[in-house]
Every structure is written in structure tokens, then in C-alpha cells.
Amino acid sequence: MVDQIRLTKWLAASLLAVFVLGVLGCNQAPRESVIGFQGLTMGTSFSMKWVDTDDSRLAGIRSEAGVLLAKINQQMSTYIDDSELSLLNQVGTGVKHPVGAELMQVLLLAQQVSDKTNGAFDVTVGPLVNLWGFGPDGRITHQPEQAAIDRLKEKIGYRFLHLDPAAGTVLKEHDQYVDLSAIAKGYGVDQLAALLEVHGIQRYLVEIGGELRIKGLKPGDEPWRLAIEAPQAGERQVQQVISIQQGAVATSGDYRNYFEEGGVRYSHTIDPRTAHPIRHRLASVTVITDNCAEADALATALMVMGEEQGYNFAIEQGLKALFISKADEGFETRYTPGFDPYLQESIGG
């Protein structure tokens, strides 16, 4: 009888232990981690990271991202002879040329930013970019002749590009050449973010060539922390660290792509209004907005405007922007009020 009681107690204790372990096992959420991959696109690198419990979706998303990026390149690259944009550039004056919905979307956004910035951003600046050696025609070592600059300047002007979204056509009033290099990477980032959201992913960081889009928190409810480079040629150092859990981040700078002649430094950032490379002290601008295509274009526009005009414009428009300018020693950093919540650490000065 005693043995039977002991056996009954042992069985009850065992069943209770199994029940408790089962409840704990059911309540314990799968462990989260950051999943991702990287690759090459648009003449630069890209990466996609997201929070997941395993990597079962990685191969499929990698494949879909490759197809998507190849499609965007075929739509908007000036380096592909038969891209949709190249075909538009080959069309003569006064022809209503049909374009796809995606290219029209980017052209409309570019025109909106051009209007807002009074032409500091202008996708028709392409011929000048090429003339100064920063486009698909290849690099140069000597400043172009002023006569050549003046001839091309007559063709520059986003208002000469007539968009008809209802008909899906573009008409060039003159022989315009469109260059989307200052907005296409941002658009690509937005499309990669949309791809992740189609898969139900709401916590991610996607990036193309340093332009980023972020949503949600990392495991442990931590925001994503991003390093903004010090604008120094020949070396990579961190100037500022920001913390962000939602938004798009784009940076424009003149410190890596340039040539020198006679002690003069010619930046790859061309001011459409003067037809010459920028010559002010502003070295880089970082902008945070809701979508990366807009952030990409606005960062370029502020970079063209310079440290004073750009900062005043950002204040007037309520933009979230960080400006890093050359100083007698090192760099000076200032930012708009909207940028303040993102600041974490300042490194250097």
C-alpha cells in the first residue's frame, strides 16, 4: 500500500513537471536575430537586414531583390545603352515619348523637388555632369572650355522637360539629357523596403550606396545606430552617430568624387544654376525624411545650395538635416531642430 502511494505521488509529480515544462515551452517566443545579405548594384554596394526568427526567407528574398534591382537599373541607368532612361535621352526634341509608370513616378518626384528648391536640384544637369568628367563619358583631367560649358548650359533646365502622367509621356523642349543618379538609389532603397513589407517584415534596414531606409527596432528593442562619415578624402572616420527607428536617411558630399587641376579642386556636384562644380565650404549634408528617393534628392539640393542658403532653406521647410562644413581646423557641424532627436555621439569636430 505504501509503495502504491509513493508510485501515485511520483506519477503526479512527473505529470506536473511535464505540464510545467510544456507551458514554459509554449510560452517561450522563438529567439530573434538580424538576418541579411549584401551585394552589388547601380555601381555600388547594397545590403538588406531584417529581424526574424530564422533564415528560411533569406534565399527567396535575395532572389527577388536581385530581380527588382536589375529591373530598376534597366529603367533608370544612364550606363545601359538600351535602358528606358537611355532611350528617352536618345529621343529628339518635341516628341511625346512613352515611359513606364515607375520612371514617370521618379521624374514627377524629381520635378517636385526642383520646384521646391528653385532649380538647385535638376535632373537635366546630366550633360554638364558628363562634360565635367563625372558621367558615363569618363573622367577628365582639365577644366572644360567655357564656350562648351555655355553651349550646354542653354539646354539645362527641368522646366524644359514636360511630363504628362495621364498619358504616360515625356516631351523634351530642347535636347535634354536626363540623369537620375541623385535620386535613383533612393528610389531603389524604397523599393527594397516595399519588398520586405510584402513579406510581412516590419523591422528592417535596407541600404544602397549609403542611402538607407529603416523601420522598427532591432532585437532587444534597440534602435538602429548609424555612423555618418567625416567628410575627409582618402580615409574613413566617423563624424557623427545617429539613432533611428523609422525613416529614410540620405547623405550627399563632395569629398570623394573630384579631380584637381592647378591646385583647384573640382567637385562632382554640379550647380545647375552656374553650370560649374560647387565651391563653398559645405562638405556633406544628411537628410532624414519618410522616403529615401526624396531624401536623396533633397540632400543633393542642399549640397548645391551650400552651408548658409542650404541651412536657411532647411529651417524654412522644416527639414531634418545635418550639415558638416569645412573649418580652418577640421569641420563644423550644425543641424536643424528636427534632427536633434536622432543625435547620439559626436566624434571629432
Automatic annotation (TrEMBL):
Keyword Flavoprotein listed: yes
SUPFAM superfamilies reported for this sequence: ApbE-like
One Pfam family linked to the record: ApbE
Membrane topology: Lipid-anchor
Cofactor: Mg(2+)
Annotated InterPro entries: ApbE (IPR024932), ApbE-like_sf (IPR003374)
E.C. numbers: 2.7.1.180
Keyword terms: Cell inner membrane, Cell membrane, FAD, Flavoprotein, Lipoprotein, Magnesium, Membrane, Metal-binding, Transferase
Source superkingdom: Bacteria
One GO MF term attached to the UniProt entry: transferase activity
The reaction(s) this protein catalyses: L-threonyl-[protein] + FAD = FMN-L-threonyl-[protein] + AMP + H(+)
Compartments, record wording: Cell inner membrane
Keyword ATP-binding among UniProt keywords: no
Protein family: Belongs to the ApbE family.
Its job: Flavin transferase that catalyzes the transfer of the FMN moiety of FAD and its covalent binding to the hydroxyl group of a threonine residue in a target flavoprotein.
Protein name, entry field: FAD:protein FMN transferase
